[in-house]
Amino acid sequence: MNIENKLKSRESFWHTTFVVALFVITTILIYLALPGEARFKYEFQKGRPWMHETLIAPFDFAILKSDDELKAERDSVLNAQLPYFTYQDSIGKEQIAKLKSRIDNLEQSSDSKTTANTEVKDQLVNLYQEVFKRGILEQSISDYAALKGKSDLMLVEDHVGRKVPLGSVFSLKTAYNYLSSGQQQLADKYPSWQPLLVKLHPEVYIHANLVYDEKTTDFEKQKLLDNISTSRGMVQEGERIVSQGDLVTPDVYRILESLQKAYENRLGSNSTEYYGILAGKAMFIILLVLVLFLFVFNIRRELLNSKRDIAFTLLMTVVMIYFCRLVVSTNPQLVYLVPFTVLALTIRTFLDARLAIFVNTIAALIVGFMVPNGYEFVLLQILAGTVAVISQDKLLRRGQLVITSVFILLTYVFAFIGISLIQEGNWDAINWMQMRWFVGNAVLTLITYLLVYIFEKSFGFVSDVTLIELSYSNQNLLRKLAEEAPGTFQHSLQVANLAEDAITKLGGNPLLVRTGAMYHDIGKTKAPHFFAENQAKGINPHEEMSLEESAQVIMNHVIDGVALAKKYKIPEMIIDFIRTHHGTTKTGYFYLMSKNENPEQQIDASKFTYPGPVPSTRETAVVMLADSIEAASRSLKDINGDSLSDLIDKIFNSKIKDGQLDYAPLTFQDITLLKQIFLEKLLTIYHVRMEYPDEKKVKKVKRKTIRLERRKND
């Protein structure tokens, strides 16, 4: 006994150490996730009264422009900024030289060479020089994205830029049309030159000499953007910003936001302030984790007994916090796209609704320190998480998660509109584009269904959906039980009905109880004919065996059931029902027979005792009791209320006396309630039908007489 106590004490010590280590590691990880910057000590909202003392500027700071103002200025700068095109003068000179050479060749082959010819040649060359001087674009103006909405461009020649109207430059097509028209006019004016001009084709000499300079354009664009001032005024030290009770108007709100950013940037600039920030952050995290521990310790203490459950809860919390931290560091606006309610939904699915809501609240408070406008974020996430947990009572069907997502979306939308109306005071000021993040959030919440499957396989959890699938009578192992041991299958169904009804009224997991009851005798499929419910009348294989051998065969159905369940990959939670449904009781019939046949010998009770262990949960204890009561009730010769009540009392007293319920969380009130539930259920199952009388020949009587007789009987 001392050794056993020492082992239990050592196991308890290491378990406690493990749990404490988990909370310490969680505290450290959350501490590292929080940003190291200081936080502004005042909370404020646009359109609400300033609830703090009168605020005086503690130092000089700039009034920052709002994002909308900066965006408008950037758009204005970008619209005014002109694209740059490089003028390549060498291309024009080269093409003009080719044109002159061609004209000279055509003149030499012609008989008429007059002074007028020189004038025409000069006019023709001037026409081409004009086109190249104005500039030729390779594509039409509409094909350049940089020229959309522009009326001018910057032409860079010899590293000097000059503004040129778009209407003065040519594309290859417009240059061709312009030159063709000019040559035709010369031909009409000087008919003698018409044969020569016909041989000059403008497309041969036209080449683009304006090239879009994207690098220079971007450089100049960035220069203009960098010159945009992010502030629009200054607040001097000692200047009053807002008095207590004043409304936070849009202008005051902008000044307060500017002060907040300046304050957070300044604080921590020296070592004393820096270490003070770190200490404050540590105190905040320690307090929140301590509150979580106290909640679990006082409200859900059984969670601390399971390393898996407490590790899963803390791991999910840390992962969600770090995921939000990653999103905020990338783009703070995307934080509302994070499916934060997944944390509450997964904990609700596997553990407990109260725990899910509390963990969701703690996580929201922590993440609220990372995001801008933390009050709004915390409020939205607490509301959405609570609604998610309430709307998903049990995850029994895929459609339930879709409905839950809709409820989450509606919660976000209504809460956000409400907060916006409080802050802005009118519908037009609501940022309706924010709704797209809420829609995306609700859609991403559907990932919970996939996560439930992953966590089941990773942590060994069993969800309600899995329990429904396992309890389906056409499931492979149950079909095997129905075919090979039909009597046992019917017994399992009755036990499932008894236990499910009992745990529903007592308080527990009905789906778990029903599934466990369906599988508790699965080991009997290995040797079904050794069990009375599967034996044909008059055939009993135990007659050819010793009492010890018979007892061993009967007890083996527990060991065989565990092995068979593992082979079919049945969850450990269900296998516990197989292990514990007989606890450490004895095979009563064979043990008593052995004692009666050998009154003078000391019988080894271990040869007639089931391996156990005893039940340690309400669910396994209820199945053990239902199994014993259902089996024993079949042996009653006279079934009535008194006999069933005596039987139930006898079985309960026997289990309590043998210590089978020592570790089950059942109170005396629970036991009394269970007795009543089992009795009512058995009376319903074994109800006695009224025996119909044989038909006899009787004298005819009047209806009135019959009525009188009935009234007397009543």
Structure description:
By secondary structure, the protein is mainly alpha-helical. It has three domains: 2-38 and 271-459, no CATH class; 77-226, no CATH class; 482-685, Orthogonal Bundle (Hypothetical protein af1432), CATH 1.10.3210. It has 28 helices and ten strands. The strands form four sheets. The protein has a four-stranded mixed beta sheet. Strands 1-10 form a two-stranded antiparallel sheet. Strands 2-9 form a two-stranded antiparallel sheet. A hairpin with a 2-residue loop joins strand 5 (152-157) and strand 6. It comes from Prolixibacter denitrificans.
Short overview:
The protein is mainly alpha-helical and 714 residues long. The chain is built from 28 helices and ten strands.
Write the layout of secondary structure elements.
Layout (H helix, E strand, L loop, with lengths): L1 H32 L21 E2 L4 E4 L2 H14 L3 E4 L1 H20 L6 H20 L1 E2 L14 E6 L2 E6 L4 E2 H18 L4 H5 L3 H4 L4 E3 L1 H13 L4 E5 L4 E3 L7 H17 L4 H29 L7 H24 L10 H10 L2 H15 L6 H18 L6 H27 L10 H10 L3 H12 L4 H8 L4 H9 L1 H21 L3 H10 L27 H21 L4 H9 L7 H10 L20 H16 L7 H17 L10 H18 L17 H11 L1
Parallel strand pairs: 3-5, 4-7
Antiparallel strand pairs: 1-10, 2-9, 3-8, 5-6
What helical percentage do the residues reach? 55-70%
Outline, from the CA principal axes? elongated
Q: Treating each run of at least 4 consecutive H or I residues as one helix, how many helices?
A: 28
What is the number of E strands? 10
Measure the end-to-end span: 67 Å
Q: How much of the residues is beta strand, in percent? A: 5-15%
Q: For this entry, what is the oligomeric state of its chains? A: single chain
| Average predicted local confidence, pLDDT | 84
Strand arrangement, major sheet: 6-5-3-8
- Domains (count): 3
Largest sheet: 4 strands, mixed
Contiguous low-pLDDT stretches (5 residues minimum) are 112-116, 688-692, 697-714
- Rg over C-alpha atoms, rounded to the nearest angstrom: 45 Å
